[in-house]
Structure to design on (506 residues):
């Protein structure tokens, strides 16, 4: 009996969380062999079974579902060779709003405006003497100002209207100068700059200044007895993140002490594991959170808290450990992505599609900052926390590539198993890929497994520049079969369906 089968390329992510085992993953591809994808490095992954997507994701167009390849990250410029990047932002409050502010250096960070070093008032004028952990911006008396936090609990500011150098905050009442440990990055609201400490105190600079702080300018986020993680602005509120809670404050205009007052009934009993595990995109905040009941999950706060990570991703977070999780946000291809670093592995969540996939790059964890102004600057910038080339990377829709800093990365779509013969011997006579037709040779490797993903066939090459790329004589089996497709060309990839012609029975 002959059958024609049409399989969607996109399936729900299912990685059999109960079958946890260590697998090599994610620090650099060294080849694609007959037993699957081989990579350098060691990581933890629940299993390599069932539907999995590497560097590719779901994109819905009308009632059709496509699997498309992520964009590559070419190098834009070398800023400080020999250093990793630790922070990046686009200074929207300055001039045309397109100045790239970056920090390079794992031990002593130097701050750059595009490729120009900004001197400091430190004795070593080229750096801030410790690792820059965040860069945020505010307005002080209508002047754009940068606020920079560092790993040694010191903070710096850059106000070009006052000085051409980055200045350290030396005021004795600043929490980092008063013997307290800073928690996370700074936040800004109504002319105030706020900084949390690990005890849960939210300190504020005086109105319309960053350099002057008072000993009484503080309010404690202590509705629950947990550790201070960081404070973040959300709309007209300041959120105080604890390790197991979120508290909300508003500018009450108090004449004494902190200008903030607590909104007690908005408190949430879920917190963030640390400040690097918090990111935002527009008015949506994403964070790796924990509760007093245990476990780790990725949460969304957009007015209410909701969990966006399935149990399979939660298992990965636990295996990686709370201290090894970082988040960053990215806008590309008209979609929004949250990139989650979990140990040496990375995963990405497409917000609009509610779809998780695996992100693999030799660049490691890249912090992103975007810009959409003018007519020629609709781009995304990034710095790598792994590669010491000291480069700034970019995604430019006008010149999109599918390599990371000149190195090929692969996209892999692995499907769920099928058993069209229900245990009877099934011969797979032909497989055809329905995909976008590319302008030049663009090879897609088709392989399959008949033993529950333990071993794979030798790959067959299908050229996506052909109108109907197909392969014949794919063997037969009595067991369920799962197909996988791997694309490594420096070209786009958009797959829709896999069509199969099979014969069942003797």
């Amino acid at each position: 009996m002959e059958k024609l089968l049409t399989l969607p390329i996109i399936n729900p992510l299912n990685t059999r969380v109960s079958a946890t085992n260590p697998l090599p993953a994610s620090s650099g591809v060294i080849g694609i062999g007959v037993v699957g994808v081989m990579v350098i490095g060691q990581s933890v992954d629940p299993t390599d079974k069932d539907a999995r997507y590497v560097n590719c994701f779901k994109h819905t167009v009308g009632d059709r579902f496509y699997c498309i390849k992520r964009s590559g990250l070419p190098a834009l410029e070398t800023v400080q060779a020999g250093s990793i990047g630790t922070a990046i932002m686009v200074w929207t409050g300055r001039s045309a709003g397109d100045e790239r502010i970056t920090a390079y250096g794992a031990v002593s960070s130097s701050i750059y405006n595009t490729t120009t070093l900004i001197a400091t008032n430190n004795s070593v004028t080229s750096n801030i003497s410790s690792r820059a952990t965040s860069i945020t911006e505010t307005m002080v008396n209508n002047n754009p100002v940068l606020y920079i936090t560092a790993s040694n609990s010191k903070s710096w500011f850059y106000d070009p209207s006052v000085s051409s150098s980055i200045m350290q905050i030396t005021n004795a009442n600043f929490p980092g100068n008063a013997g307290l440990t800073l928690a996370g990055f700074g936040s800004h609201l109504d002319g105030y700059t706020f900084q949390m400490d690990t005890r849960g105190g939210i300190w504020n600079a005086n109105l319309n200044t960053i350099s002057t702080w008072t000993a009484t300018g503080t309010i404690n986020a202590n509705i629950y007895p947990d550790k201070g993680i960081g404070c973040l602005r959300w709309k007209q509120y300041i959120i105080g993140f604890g390790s197991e809670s979120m508290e909300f404050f508003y500018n009450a205009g108090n004449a004494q002490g902190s200008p903030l007052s607590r909104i007690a009934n908005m408190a949430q009993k879920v917190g963030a594991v640390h400040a690097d595990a918090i990111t935002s995109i527009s008015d949506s905040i994403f964070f790796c959170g924990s509760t007093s009941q245990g476990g780790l999950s990725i949460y969304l706060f957009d007015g209410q808290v909701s969990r966006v990570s399935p149990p399979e991703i939660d298992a990965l977070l636990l295996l990686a450990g709370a201290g090894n999780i970082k988040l960053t946000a990215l806008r590309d291809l008209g979609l929004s992505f949250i990139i989650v670093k979990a140990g040496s592995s990375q995963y990405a969540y497409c917000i609009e599609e509610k779809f998780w996939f695996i992100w693999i790059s030799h660049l490691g964890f890249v912090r992103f900052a975007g810009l959409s102004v003018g007519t020629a600057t609709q781009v995304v910038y990034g710095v790598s926390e792994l590669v010491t080339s000291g480069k700034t990377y970019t995604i430019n829709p006008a010149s999109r590539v599918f390599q990371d800093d000149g190195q090929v990365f692969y996209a892999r779509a692995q499907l769920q198993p099928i058993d069209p013969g229900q245990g009877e011997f099934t011969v797979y006579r032909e497989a055809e890929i329905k995909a976008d037709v590319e302008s030049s040779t663009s090879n897609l490797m088709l392989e399959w497994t008949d033993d529950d993903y333990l071993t794979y066939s030798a790959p067959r090459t299908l050229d996506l520049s052909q109108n109907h790329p197909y392969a014949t004589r794919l063997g037969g089996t009595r067991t369920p079969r799962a197909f996988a497709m791997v694309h490594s060309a420096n070209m786009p990839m958009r797959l829709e369906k896999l069509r199969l012609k099979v014969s069942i029975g003797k």
